[in-house]
Design goal:
Rossmann fold, 8 helices, five-stranded parallel sheet, alpha/beta, globular, 212 residues, binds flavin mononucleotide, 5 strands
Length: 212
């Protein structure tokens, strides 16, 4: 399966990048084809008013690498791993811009919107967050945002790993072993059980069998 790992911190050798590398290694170990991209290389502009910004042929008027990233790497991927630092209790602005700008490419005005709309659903998504504060509430809002984003896009949020660290590489010393957890998330991207029951969903009483 194809896995796209997106690094969303401006610090290329920072904590979320370490988590991303660990998840990528885990996914490779499980036999998947992994592509790692740094959002700084692709996303320069923020979303503008599409009506006035769009070119005459309907394509996005922001001249950076986002469209190539979207069409060549993101749409074809079977799973996404999003690695972000926690900034003001949210995702990095670069990642938020990447999410916002999906709007332009999903709208009817964009000539390739059919490909984008068909390619977004069904992906497995893993989230990696590096942050200074270990207080659980610090990442709650962001985790909820990813849950809603993936629900809206009909994707499966497979797991979230939070690594505590501040200075470069700090996350390696987190006794909770987030690098191990990120590797495990990468390894199990397509095997991890994701359920979302309603009261009448047919199911067995036992969740696991000995085969699991
Ligand atoms: C602009 C900015 C905002 C931040 N906001 C928070 C925050 O709200 N909560 C927190 O725990 N850490 C916060 N931090 C600390 C980073 O999340 C932390 O240093 C993280 O390890 C950085 O990841 P990186 O090395 O991948 O960039 C912030 C850092 C910056 C630069």
């Amino acid at each position: 399966m194809r896995v796209l790992v997106l690094k969303a911190s401006p610090r290329r050798d920072g904590n979320s990048a370490l988590l991303a590398d660990a998840a990528a290694a885990g996914a490779r170990e499980a036999g998947h084809e992994v592509t790692v991209r740094h959002l700084d290389d692709a996303v320069e502009g923020m979303l503008r008013d599409c009506r006035t910004c769009r070119r005459a042929d309907g394509s996005c008027g922001i001249d950076d690498g986002y469209e190539r990233l979207l069409l060549d790497d993101l749409v074809p991927a079977d799973a996404l791993v999003l690695a972000t630092p926690l900034y003001w209790y949210g995702m990095s602005a670069r990642l938020k811009s990447a999410v916002d700008r999906l709007f332009c490419f999903m709208s009817e005005g964009y000539p390739g919107s059919g490909t984008v709309l068909a390619g977004l659903p069904g992906k497995r998504v893993g989230v990696l967050i590096a942050c200074e504060e270990s207080y659980r509430g610090a990442t709650l809002g962001l985790q909820a945002q990813f849950q809603e984003l993936t629900r809206y896009l009909r994707q499966d949020l497979v797991g979230v790993v939070v690594g505590i660290g501040n200075s470069r590489g700090d996350v390696r010393l987190d006794p909770g072993n987030p690098l191990g957890a990120a590797a495990d998330l990468g390894r199990r991207l397509f095997d991890a059980r994701v359920t979302d029951y309603r009261f009448d969903t047919p199911r067995d009483n036992a969740v696991w069998s000995s085969a699991d």
